[in-house]
Design a protein that fits this description.
The complex is a heterodimer of chains A (about 110) and B (about 120). Chain A has about 110 residues and is mostly beta strands. Chain A has no helices and eleven strands. In chain A, strand 7 and strand 8 form a beta hairpin. Chain B is globular and about 40 Å long. The chains are: A mainly beta (about 110), B mainly beta (about 120). Chains A and B meet through strand 4, strand 5 and strand 10 of A and strand 5 and strand 10 of B.
Chain lengths: ~110, ~120
């Protein structure tokens, strides 16, 4: 099974900050990686697919990069609506999610 | 507008069964693979099962293999998850999700809560 490790688990930041979340796969997954945002009581929302492709309707302050085993999600300027939990997901072999990164208000 | 609406959740005793449904609308259901994903209270996301558009390919997470059965009815735009031999650890919100052409889950339902408890 492919394991996905996200860091950090919790991130405290202020509006306007640049935020980076890292996801590491236990083996190469090429670019088969997605990022999701989830708010309490809501379903996850797709932000990024195939490592670096922005889903339609997602603000351009979100970006993704990486390939192989190392990936990052960057929010260029954190907005009030961005405080949420973020998950990476590999879909190279079935699916595995990272444990999540909660972005909190500093 | 794409919509996915889950139903069928509830309280069930350990060892019991439950059948979840997901009603799809706003897209050509028969053209898309579908997944079930669950989330235990206060925990992260866990993929449960996948079914291809024609039901020719079906996969399960090891944690549910042999106990859960995924199926679909393309004529009725519906996805199902038959859950047998339920355990306490199956307690979770269950989401159905559509697979985009890029193979990520691009639309999700609102979820249905399954509680396994005596």
């Amino acid at each position: 099974d492919i394991q996905m490790t996200q860091s950090p688990s919790t991130l405290s930041a202020s509006v306007g900050d640049r935020v980076t979340i890292t996801c590491r796969a236990s083996q190469s997954i090429s670019s088969w990686l997605a990022w999701y945002q989830q708010k309490p009581g809501k379903a996850p929302k797709l932000l990024i697919y195939k490592a670096s492709n922005l889903e339609s309707g997602v603000p351009s302050r979100f970006s993704g990069s990486g390939s192989g085993t190392e990936f990052t999600l960057t929010i260029s300027s954190l907005q009030p609506d961005d405080f949420a939990t973020y998950y990476c997901q590999q879909y190279s072999n079935y699916r595995t999610f990272g444990q999540g990164t909660k972005v909190e208000i500093k | 507008e794409v919509q996915l609406v889950e139903s069928g959740g509830g309280l069930v005793q350990p060892g019991g069964s439950l059948r979840l449904s997901c009603a799809a609308s706003g897209f050509t259901f028969s053209s898309y693979g579908m997944n079930w994903v669950r989330q235990a209270p206060g925990k992260g996301l866990e993929w449960v099962s996948h079914i291809s558009s024609s039901s020719s390919s079906i996969y399960y997470a090891d944690s549910v293999k042999g106990r859960f059965t995924i199926s679909r009815d393309n004529d009725k735009n519906s996805l199902f998850l038959q859950m047998d031999s339920l355990r306490d650890e199956d307690t979770a919100v269950y989401y159905c999700a559509r697979l985009s052409t890029a193979a990520a889950e691009d639309y999700w339902g609102q979820g249905t809560l399954v509680t396994v408890s005596s």
